[in-house]
Write a structure and sequence with these properties.
This protein is of the alpha/beta class. The protein is built from 17 helices and 18 strands. The chain folds into 2 domains: 5-244 and 442-469, 2-Layer Sandwich (Nucleotidyltransferase, domain 5); 252-438, 2-Layer Sandwich (Nucleotidyltransferase, domain 5), CATH 3.30.420. The strands form 5 sheets. A 6-stranded mixed beta sheet has the order 3-2-1-6-12-11. A hairpin with a 2-residue loop joins strand 2 and strand 3. Helix 9 crosses helix 16 and helix 14 (378-404) crosses helix 15. The longest helix has 27 residues, at 378-404. It is globular, with a radius of gyration of 22 Å. The two termini are 24 Å apart. Belongs to the FGGY kinase family. Residues 260-454 form the Carbohydrate kinase FGGY C-terminal domain. Keywords: ATP-binding, Disulfide bond, Kinase, Nucleotide-binding, Rhamnose metabolism, Transferase. Residues 9-247 form the Carbohydrate kinase FGGY N-terminal domain.
Length: 474
């Protein structure tokens, strides 16, 4: 590699989005975060939804800034790829227009799950799709939409990053890593589990064709190209569209002996492995199988992550800036004061999924599980969150090793949670393993690396990963 090659990563998170310009040079990878924006849900007819039009507008603002910055350096954008959280989707007509608002996963209906189980049992669904049963899963949301008549007009279901890709290029598809979060992808074939879809009563016509991670979706539409100020249409890739898959792609190949913790709004702890683990043991242990960028399997347990801390801080701040409160409470929680907690809670508990009164929810769970009726102070609550996350990381990584037969020699911690020093220290203490922290923007690094491989800059993802590691991306 003798020159600079630039790509743009659009990383949509459940609380914020960012657009990153990544430039690969002979010295490694340089990142420029050109735009960051809040992701604030809206309420439509009493239902919590994503503000897709506002988010897409912010996306275009960010990509335009990336184009301008690359141009000012004498270069150009050679690719765009979008990643996001899983499960949520838009229903679009043939022209790509939404036929209904995009519902937020926190507005899922738990009552749909037992209805679905009448047609496909929990055990059978897991043995085929490898996905842990949760009310937020796409399969249950689509059953809900079928019963509500929203699929009668024959729309196409596009998962969030695929929806963005369609709006950028006009091309419909379902990238495999994000499709694997739906509870409808057959882990053995890598395609939709058509028989399960039909038994759920979901029209097969709603599902777009599966596409490989790193495949080309097309180029930006003329109106989009003009809006971005680009000199010519920009290639758009379906990278590892699930943000977890992009994050894992920046860290390790299957079998490297590394336990991985990706800690953002959601935390996922586990490992990468060559084949899915679809056993009863894995299901009862709460592990989900998701596709990786290289057709590997990400065996992970879903936890609530920094969501617990951020929700508590938001409530305590009462509309005031959260950052000063966060800093002071983390400092205080790191200093021993003799007030030992009686135990920890499960950050993956279903009662912690919804928003609202998070300190109260945590306190009730603590009293129930630890038998301690004390009134938790703010510092106690922060300590409890951090300790509970560290212990759940330890348990999840150890279980992932047992289920896959791997012996881990270190843990790599990535995402925003890797920047919380007390959490990293606790994880190191509890696991007894070295903890290597990756870049906070590991998802963007993985996104960019996959584009670089797809466009021929590197022959393999491993080569792109080595280039990124030569850089100071902390």
């Amino acid at each position: 590699m003798t020159d600079s090659r630039s790509f743009t990563a659009v990383d949509l998170g459940a609380q914020s989005g960012r657009v990153v310009l990544g430039t690969f040079t002979p010295d490694g990878l340089a990142l420029d975060e050109v735009h960051r924006f809040a992701n604030e849900p809206i309420t439509v007819s009493g239902t919590l939804c994503w503000d897709t039009s506002g988010l897409f507008e912010q996306t275009l603002i960010g990509i335009a800034r990336a184009c301008s910055l690359a141009g000012s350096r004498g270069g150009r954008i050679e690719g765009i790829s979008v990643d996001s959280w899983g499960v949520d989707y838009g229903l679009v007509d043939a022209g790509g227009s939404l036929v209904s608002p995009v519902r937020h996963y926190r507005a899922s209906d738990p009552a749909i799950v037992p209805i679905a189980n009448e047609h496909v049992s929990t055990a059978e669904a897991y043995s085929r799709t490898g996905i842990t049963e949760m009310a937020i899963n796409t399969c249950f949301q689509l059953i809900r939409d079928t019963r509500a008549g929203l699929l009668d007009s024959g729309p196409t279901m596009l998962l969030t990053p695929d929806l963005w890709t369609a709006w950028l290029t006009g091309s419909f598809g379902a990238e495999r890593t994000i499709a694997s979060t739906t509870g409808l992808l057959d882990q053995q074939t890598g395609d939709w589990a058509h028989d399960l879809v039909e038994r759920y009563g979901i029209p097969l016509s709603v599902l777009p064709a599966i596409a490989d991670a790193g495949s080309a979706a097309g180029v930006t539409l003329p109106a989009i190209t003009e809006r971005l100020g680009a000199p010519s249409p920009i290639p758009v890739y379906r990278g590892a569209s699930h943000d977890t898959a992009s994050a894992f792609a920046s860290v390790a190949d299957p079998g490297e002996g590394i336990g991985v913790i990706s800690c953002g709004t959601w935390a996922l702890a586990g490992c990468s492995t060559t084949t899915p683990v679809l056993t009863v043991d894995a299901r009862t242990a709460g592990f989900t199988n998701e596709q990786g960028a290289d057709r590997s399997t990400l065996l992970v347990r879903n936890l609530s992550g920094t969501w617990l801390l951020e929700e508590c801080l938001r409530e305590w701040a009462g509309g005031q800036p959260v950052a000063p409160l966060r800093a002071s409470l983390l400092d205080a929680a790191s200093a021993p004061d003799g007030h030992e907690l009686a135990g920890t809670i499960d950050p993956g508990d279903a009662s912690l999924i919804e928003a609202g009164n998070m300190p109260g929810r945590i306190a009730r769970l603590y009293r129930r599980d630890c038998g301690d009726d004390r009134e938790l102070s703010r510092i106690d609550t922060v300590r409890l969150i951090l300790a509970s996350l560290a212990h759940s990381f330890d348990h999840s990584v150890r279980e992932a090793g047992r289920l896959t037969g791997q012996s881990f020699t270190e843990i790599c911690m990535i995402g925003g949670g890797s920047q919380i020093a007390p959490l990293v220290d606790l994880t190191r203490q509890v696991t007894g393993l070295p903890v290597r922290t990756g870049p906070a923007e590991a998802t963007s690094v993985g996104n960019l690396s996959i584009q670089a491989v797809a466009s021929g800059v590197f022959a393999t993802l491993g080569e792109a990963r080595l280039a990124a590691r030569r850089s100071d991306l902390s």
